[in-house]
Known about the structure:
By secondary structure, the protein is an alpha/beta fold. It contains eight helices and twelve strands. The strands form three sheets. Strands 2-1-3-4-5 form a five-stranded parallel beta sheet, sandwiched between helices. Strands 6-7-8-9 form a four-stranded antiparallel beta sheet, with helices on one face. Strands 10-12-11 form a three-stranded antiparallel beta sheet. A hairpin with a 3-residue loop joins β11 and β12. The longest helix is centred in the middle third of the chain and has 16 residues, at 110-125. The two termini are 37 Å apart.
Amino acid sequence: MAKQNILVVDDEEDILELVTYNLSKEGYHVLRATSGEEALAAAKSKIPDLVVLDLMLPGMDGLEVCKVLKGTPETRHIPIVVLTAKGEEPDIVTGLELGADDYVTKPFSPRVLVARVRAALRRKAEPAVSQTAPLHVGDLVVHPGRHEVLVKDRPVNLTFTEFGILCLLAQRPGWVFTRYQIVDAIRGTDTVVTDRSVDVHIASLRKKLGPCASYVETVRGVGYRLRNA
């Protein structure tokens, strides 16, 4: 099997070396860029399977690179894992809204970064879940096509955002989604959602699900999942 190509974009040489070493050790072929302009040229020359993108870059910053990649038909399908320093929440949210798939904060664990890269590539390879077929989890039924939720055969009225969150969780019971992944998945809905407001929507969702409220589980320090009922 051919090695997957990962483009790593960072202007700090020690970070580039660290990320390159750990990804190469896992069997990936690493391409490198130290500026936004160089990253776009590299992605155009040889379309990578994934991009690890620092936000703080000289010249064109990481957010602009993300915007260009996601706005170009040839590269919009490429998963992007954002690298960012702590305390840059607005930039993280903006990056996710522009189409980034995940984020890792600096200083970071190489093992965590590799795990996030592997997960993003796996999600890209998985076949899309039907957007119309009903999703059954225990006594809960979610109809994406009909925008309908049933709890023990009784309809439940959810807001557009609550329904989007439940749909995401129901597509992969047992799979843990971070708050930022939830924000990314439901961006463009009728409500501005941030990682902090996700908790509020989850609380409201649980209340409306009644006897199925316990299906929505909190994974402390990570995010949320819908348990396999």
